[in-house]
Amino acid sequence: MALLEHGHVLVLPDLTFDVSEAADVIYADVSDAGVKNVSYNPANGELKGTPLDGTARERLADAVARYSDWAEALVRELLPAYAKGLEKGRTSFRPRAADHNLSKRKDDRRLHVDAFPSNPVQGRRILRVFRNVNPAGEARNWRVGEPFADFAARFLPQTRPMAPGMGAILQALRVTTGRRSAYDHLMLQLHDAAKEHDEYQAHGPRWAADFPAGATWMCFTDSVVHAALGGRYAFEQTFYLPVSAMGDPAASPLRILEAMTGRRLV
Length: 266
Ligand code: SIN
Ligand code: FE
Hints:
This protein has helices spanning about 1-5, 25, 55-80, 150-155, 165-170, 180-195, 200-205, 255-260, and strands at about 10, 40, 45-50, 85-95, 125-130, 140-145, 205-210, 215-220, 225-230, 235-240. With about 270 residues, the protein is α+β, with helices and mostly antiparallel strands. A seven-stranded antiparallel sheet has the order 1-8-5-10-4-2-3. A three-stranded antiparallel sheet has the order 7-6-9, with no helix packed on it. The structure holds succinic acid (SIN) and fe (iii) ion.
């Protein structure tokens, strides 16, 4: 828990999650052209981003739902201190890591921290659990960057405060689900500034991290600077956690950015 909160990626190389019964649907061409991921909402069972229909669609949804339950059980067992505040977000299946036609801002091959334009978190942490289910034994290739405080210090001078009333306007126009806070605004600007910075992308500090087929890994993707360069077929489950659930709230991006800006951000 302390390691995760301080920017480490936890790798669990040999857990079992069997996808053989759904192999024909998950390794078929299951994602819509131009869509990065198949996306599943565990709250209502809705599946998006795939052209499959009929029983093939149902079986894909079942496999993603099963991963969602598995990832939740894993977090509850491994990190019981988070159980009370744990909130489940969307689940995804990622048939490919990289799409060559994306804008810089949407291109997750570029180093970034996660921040969602339409889905404000208001300071809550983003914990993600990934699993590489590549049938050919190919790794998923990440790059992991500098500590969050260094990353924030680098790009903070390029950020601007949110215009008054903007959070309410975006919400009224349904650009966002919920209210974009000053924290969300700042995190989005850090995300965009990093992705658009060619020099940083080419030469900024980073280390290669390859996650082998069969591996499971998790990290707080709101503070671990990361990029996914390659690899096909991975599952991902998103969780949200309040800063108050952290063992060390001071290590959260919210508290770090508040200390750096001298402002309250939510
Ligand atoms: C990302 O969160 O940037 C992508 C991670 C992945 O799909 O491996
Ligand atoms: Fe990301």
